[in-house]
Write a structure and sequence with these properties.
By secondary structure, the protein is α+β, with helices and mostly antiparallel strands. Helices cover 24% and strands 18% of the residues. Strand 9 and strand 10 form a beta hairpin.
Length: 379
């Protein structure tokens, strides 16, 4: 944690001061960090702790704090150790997003972390995994219907936060007494949901990227199956559910665009009438604005795909009592026949032709060629 992280010193690209430690979850780029008066606009800073826990603090001591610095901040009781993730103008915007007002009572930044602070911090972090295992066993012995997903010690080691998951309300007063006797620290129980737990644990999604809840999502919105229906996604629970066993948050990313594009398509209940037959809605490709119709209402028969603009024109013609010859503009189109590559040339063109052997006809009867001739005539 004592290494310096900075971007290249080139004149273009991202601001080097706004880049921090990329191994932190919910890492952001402070693109206003290179402005001359960015530090003097406000004394508020954003500090990140273990996993996805963040907080806002005041720099009352006017320390020269940059993004990526390790600081000791005020806690109750004692102090905590965190990493500065944002300073200046963007902190006020983040507080507004978190529904916090600048005039509320905000804790202070004590100092930049010293060597002794880091030693206590590392000792407290080494105790977290063993504490989580023992606390799970204690909850199991008490018969509590809850799951302790993570334990986070404060930077000075005087307090521990136990993150748990439970479907209903849990009376953990007896559990707090047991944990206080086991670990001799102040106990704080904090209930989280399965999505928050997935964000704290981290992982990779089926898209190949890190989970959104572990990288940038701070507030979770409800996701319904209607988002899948608008996008024509198969309602398969195994494909729609994420690692938290809830519907994927990314289902809400493009649903507004699909809804807007779907408004430009004709209604599914309208039947297109032509001189030859009636066509019923079969399926639609929302993004390409193409609609497929079938002559059978319940099965795929004589499927014809036309643009949505053409379908709207036919609907308007039917309202006027007119019927086109066919769904396609300019009459039905003959589908091109598939090209047989094997029929383009003879398959035997690569075979070697056998050379014919010349026969020796010198010994054949009636052939005088090849016989020796006498030098003198017979008398």
């Amino acid at each position: 944690m004592e290494q310096d992280y900075k971007c290249c010193n080139c004149q273009r690209g991202l601001c080097a001061q706004g880049c921090g430690r990329d191994e932190c979850q919910l890492n952001v780029h402070d693109y206003l960090a290179d402005l001359p008066d960015n530090q003097t606009v406000t004394d508020l800073v954003e500090v990140q702790f273990k996993n996805t826990r963040k907080g806002f603090y005041r720099n009352d001591n006017h320390l020269n704090i940059q993004k990526g610095d390790i600081v000791a901040v005020e806690a109750s009781p004692g102090h905590d150790i965190g990493i500065v993730t944002m300073t200046g103008r963007l902190v006020a915007l983040q507080m507004r997003k978190a529904n916090l007002r600048p005039d509320e009572e905000i804790k202070r930044v004590y100092r930049i972390a010293r060597q002794t602070d880091m030693e206590k911090y590392n000792e407290a972090k080494e105790r977290e995994h063993d504490t989580m295992i023992r606390s799970r066993q204690a909850a199991k012995d008490l018969g509590l219907d809850m799951k302790i997903g993570d334990v986070e010690f404060q930077g000075d080691g005087n307090k521990a936060i136990f993150y748990y998951i439970a479907e209903g309300r849990v009376d953990f007063r007896e559990l707090i007494k047991v944990l206080a006797e086991l670990f001799h620290v102040r106990i704080e129980m904090r209930q989280i949901g399965v999505r928050q737990e997935a964000g704290r644990i981290g992982g990779f999604g089926p898209c190949g990227r890190e989970l959104c809840c572990a990288t940038w999502i701070r507030s979770f919105q409800s996701v319904g199956t209607a988002a899948a229906r608008f996008q024509d996604v198969s309602l398969n629970p195994q494909k729609l559910a994420g690692q938290c066993a809830k519907l994927k948050c990314c289902m809400n990313y493009e649903v507004d665009q699909y809804i807007e594009a779907g408004r430009r398509l004709p209604s599914r209940e309208v039947v297109l009438q032509t001189l030859n037959s009636d066509y019923f809605f079969f399926k639609a490709d929302i993004l390409s604005n193409m609609v497929t119709y079938s002559t059978d209402k319940r099965s795929a028969a004589n499927l014809t795909t036309i643009p949505a603009r053409r379908a709207l024109d036919i609907i308007e013609m039917n309202r006027r009592g007119e019927k086109p010859d066919s769904l396609e503009e300019g009459g039905p189109k003959v589908a091109p026949r598939p090209v047989d590559l094997a029929a383009q040339d003879d398959l035997n063109r690569f075979d070697k032709k056998k050379k014919k052997k010349k026969k020796n006809r010198s010994n054949e009867p009636g052939n005088d060629k090849g016989k020796p001739t006498s030098s003198a005539h017979e008398e």
